[in-house]
Amino acid sequence: MRKELLTKADEAEAAYTKGYALLNQYRFAEAIPFLQQALSDAPLPDFYQALGQAYRELPNLTEAEKVLREGLLKATGSDEHEANLNSQLGMVLLDRGDLDGALTYFHRALTIDEKVHGPDHLNVAEDANNIGMVLLDKGDLAGALQYTQQALTIDEKVYGTEYPDVASFSNNIGEILYFRGDLAESLRYTQRALTIGEKVFGPDHPKVAIFAGNIGQILAAKGYLDGALPYEKRALTIDEKVYGLDHPMVATFTYNIGMILKNKGDLDGALQHIQRALTIDERVYGPDHPNVARDANGMGQVLRAKGDLDGALNYTQRALAINEKLYGLDNQRLGRLPPMLKKSRRAIQQ
């Protein structure tokens, strides 16, 4: 029996190592069978976390939530693993548009990590950042800025100014400032994120795509459409290469390009891009997700500009209905500037 158990453990470790390597290469579909095998051989919290992240990135949010909730049941008594799984589950719920659920799990992760690591640790910074991003989506800009600045301060203090999460948190502060209407400071923080990101990740990394895309959004908001378009196209090219043609991040950059084209007067090009984004997001998330609302609202704007008022009304009413359902009638999210991107991920611990 002992020999059989050791064999199982070796097989689980080998499968996990292969799956983890594929996960870090953004080959999520290929990683999943190996991670499933590892979990079948040895139901360890790290394996649940890795498989949950692979499903989330694919994305298959239903399976991701199922795996992570099961992992939390297995992680009882292990503070470190429980914090990581709470954080990952919060990310999945955030992706699904369940802001209150996401906030609950991020706060649980923060409480555990502060107890285990103290107030000035990478995990605490990530938890604070995640809470800040949920508060931003809920329209609490002051609370969002407080938590995200806490995250940036921790990482600059502990790791210096050229650490990967310093780039991510600078980007996220740029996003909050963007929604506060301070576009000059938003651009400064986001350009800092891009400069650090290119150095620490390389020029063709998905996070570099996020930072470049966000600079495009800020420039577009400032009215510099010709300057914005190359940043969005760069972001789209990176993510099509990394994720393939039908991933939500590809949809987001396609949408952004469509809106810039709309504002430049290229309505047919805008409609083509935004329809592509809507098709991807409906397939990935279903009909009632914030990204679908974003795309439907964009379709409404383009159709209105083309003179199709009936079509515009249908799409805009659909977008409003989704957002009212998710965020209530009085949330600042309704009618605000187009969303920028954060996508900050907790690293998996081997």
| Binned strand content | under 5%
Mean pLDDT, nearest integer?
Answer: 90
**Strand/helix succession:** HHHHHHHHHHHHHHHH
| Dominant shape | globular
Structural class: mainly alpha
Question: What topology emerges from the helices and strands here?
Answer:
Blueprint: H1 2-24, H2 28-41, H3 45-57, H4 61-74, H5 79-95, H6 99-117, H7 122-137, H8 141-159, H9 164-180, H10 183-201, H11 206-221, H12 225-243, H13 248-264, H14 267-285, H15 290-306, H16 309-327
Helix pairs in contact: 1-2, 1-3, 2-3, 3-4, 3-5, 4-5, 5-6, 6-7, 7-8, 7-9, 8-9, 9-10, 9-11, 10-11, 11-12, 12-13, 13-14, 13-15, 14-15, 15-16
What report would you give on this structure?
This protein is an all-alpha fold and 350 residues long. It is built from 16 helices and no strands. Helix 9 runs antiparallel to helix 10. The two termini are 27 Å apart. Mean pLDDT is 90; it is low at 332-337 and 343-350.
What tags apply to this protein structure?
disordered C terminus, 350 residues, globular, mainly alpha
Question: Care to give the gist of this entry?
Answer:
With 350 residues, the protein is mainly α.
